């Protein structure tokens, strides 16, 4: 796909209201899960597939330099506009690059690389991982998160006959550009095959309902922030049933 195709994919997602409130809450939970691995020293970060910059605004205060990459021109422009009037705080520079990963040329290495709900969109993950290994500083960390095939809500959908199996790619996911659906063990295997060292892996936020169901329940005040906080904490006990799975990895010693 070229950039125009990615823009069309973005339009399809907006029409489907794919980005739910729960997704935005998940960004907060991801930061909390990854925060212990952020350095206290001035450092640099690369986010691959920043979309419209929602997660980028949350990590921005923790990095002195932020490089954001997005293949869809419309989304990249929205990210630039978002940060044009944003308080940069301790961040010295923010660069937004509109480019496909396979064509991306970067002349530096980064202390942190973020790949959040992106890997399932990559046709050949091994090729991207080899590029990421060039962009990752020797002591840097790669942060990966993907939707979880084994989430409780997804397993319920299988029992209801809505999905053939937990790791199946649904029509909606295919429309959104997914090539596969990861479970924790298949994501870990993917990272291992790439020659990276896994520091930590697990789940983020126990997920009892589908995104749209959680949003509707929230809007009708059936659940609230305290309920979602409880789900986040419960995820530490039941990582295999969480909304997202994650890996924190480094280059091999």
TrEMBL record:
* UniProt-recorded Gene Ontology molecular function terms: methyltransferase activity
Asked if Endoplasmic reticulum is a keyword of the record, the answer is: no
Q: Cite the entry's keywords alphabetically.
A: Methyltransferase, Transferase
What GO biological process term is on the record, naming one? methylation
InterPro entries per UniProt: SAM-dependent_MTases_sf
Q: Does the keyword Methyltransferase apply?
A: yes
The positions making up the signal sequence are none
What this protein is called in its record is Class I SAM-dependent methyltransferase
Q: Which organism is it from?
A: Zooshikella ganghwensis
């Amino acid at each position: 796909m070229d950039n125009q195709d990615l823009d069309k994919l973005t339009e399809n997602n907006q029409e489907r209201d794919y980005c739910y409130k729960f997704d935005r809450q998940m960004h907060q939970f991801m930061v909390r899960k990854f925060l212990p691995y952020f350095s206290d020293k001035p450092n640099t970060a690369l986010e691959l597939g920043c979309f419209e910059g929602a997660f980028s605004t949350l990590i921005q205060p923790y990095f002195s330099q932020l490089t954001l990459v997005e293949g869809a021109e419309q989304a990249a422009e929205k990210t630039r506009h978002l940060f044009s009037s944003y308080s940069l705080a301790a961040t010295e520079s923010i660069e937004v690059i509109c480019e496909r990963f396979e064509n991306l040329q970067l002349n530096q290495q980064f202390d942190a690389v973020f790949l959040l709900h992106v890997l399932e969109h990559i046709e050949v993950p091994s090729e991207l991982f080899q590029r990421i290994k060039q962009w990752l500083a020797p002591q840097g960390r790669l942060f990966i998160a993907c939707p979880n095939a084994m989430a409780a809500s997804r397993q319920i959908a299988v029992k209801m006959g809505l999905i053939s199996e937990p790791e199946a790619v649904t029509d909606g996911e295919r429309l959104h550009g997914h090539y596969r659906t990861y479970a924790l063990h298949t994501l870990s295997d993917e990272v291992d095959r790439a020659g990276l060292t896994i520091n930590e892996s697990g789940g983020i936020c126990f997920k009892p309902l589908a995104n749209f169901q959680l949003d509707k329940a929230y809007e009708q005040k059936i659940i609230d922030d305290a309920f979602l906080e409880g789900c986040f904490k419960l995820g530490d006990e039941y990582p295999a049933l969480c909304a997202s799975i994650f890996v924190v990895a480094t280059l091999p010693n």
